[in-house]
Write a structure and sequence with these properties.
This protein is α+β, with helices and mostly antiparallel strands. Helices cover 28% and strands 26% of the residues. The site of iron/sulfur cluster has 11 residues, from helix 1.
Length: 135
């Protein structure tokens, strides 16, 4: 049996608590508090303590799905991105850029959020952009 623990950041909110993922034989098996983390000081909320549960959950989406004939079917990333781009273009042409809005995430880096808001403003052409950490 191979045992590891890997330091990581909680994916659930912008607080950014640190903890360790416990890994046995390559499978994430749980969360261990990090008592030296200056933010959490080893205390986690219920979401943090269960942050590893979604990783191997059978219902987790790992591939894009596109609705065809009323049912979701697996698609490639190229198909999904192409569909989204064509829908964005269609709605902008019909209703204007302000008919679209973007919601960013506290689960990604500041740099990724910067790129996202830049995309919404400079490419889509709208200031309709918001972020869950503002709540
Ligand atoms: S443990 Fe709770 S408070 Fe800390 S980052 Fe995760 S969700 Fe936020």
């Amino acid at each position: 049996m191979k045992y590891e623990n890997i330091s990581t950041v909680c994916p659930y909110c912008g607080t950014g608590c640190n903890f360790y993922l416990e890994i046995i034989d390559g499978e994430i098996t749980g969360v261990i508090q990090n008592k030296t983390d200056v933010l959490s000081q080893g205390r986690l909320c219920i979401k943090g303590w269960n942050a590893a549960e979604f990783v191997n959950h059978p219902d987790r989406l790992t591939k894009p799905l596109i609705k065809k004939d009323g049912k979701f079917v697996e698609a490639t990333w190229a198909e999904a991105v192409s569909l989204v781009a064509s829908k964005f273009t269609e709605y902008i042409d019909k209703f204007g850029a302000n008919s679209l809005g973007g919601l960013a995430s506290a689960k990604v880096t500041n740099e990724e959020n910067f790129v996202f808001q830049k995309f919404m403003r400079a490419v889509i052409g709208t200031n309709n952009v918001d972020h869950c950490a503002r709540l």
